[in-house]
Amino acid sequence: MLIALIVVIVLLVLISVKQVNEYERGIKFTLGKFSKIMNPGWNLVLPIFRSYRKVDIRTKAVDVPEQDAITKDNVSVRINAVIYYKVFDASKAVLEVENFYFAVGQLAQTTMRNAVGSVSLDELLSERDKISMEICKIIDKATDPWGIKVEDVELKDISLPEEMKRVIARVAEAEREKQAVITKAAGEVEASLNLSKAAGLMAKTPGAMHLRTLSTLSDLSSDQSNTIIFALPVEVLKSFEGKALSEEKIEKIVKKVTKK
Asked: What's the rounded Cα separation, in Å, for the pair 148 and 91?
């Protein structure tokens, strides 16, 4: 009988020993009532009278399913996100909520849709970090009574309808064309100012136009085309014009003399 009793006690002790890992915490119940939190290591949990439940306290990354939402300016979008959270109070995570994994996921989906509905499409696309921080604060505040700390929320993807993508592409193309026209006009203004200064300087300097003409001919000579261009300075044409006027005056004088 003594040996049988010893064997029963040893078996009872072996059955009662429960191991809690370093990344876990155990919630012990005595006769159905919460008694204490079990720390990592070996703990005694007597069968029948006591029970326990393990809670993983490591940071969890939960992928929030893709959600349909409507922005403040009535644009339909599809968004998904990832949420990082951890349990800081294992007893609350078990006692205050039935399934905190499911509860946190549902809360994240609802909060994400509400946050997207309070901003316009431009704000959603340009201020994703700010919106993610707002969602994180709302979820963290709501999960504090559950013993859960939300560390971060990141919006992974924002899907737009094909019609909206084409509209945004046209807007971006028009904006690029606008910038191109402005840049080209600014270049033309700067070029005209420089040409005006150069023309004024050449007009004041004797022989400058002739040197410029020779330089232009030198540049044309490097071209392999068969086109030959003869350029004459404006001063030469003016001299011919003056000469032609002199010949006309001479003819008039001759005619008058002949008549006489």
From this structure: 11
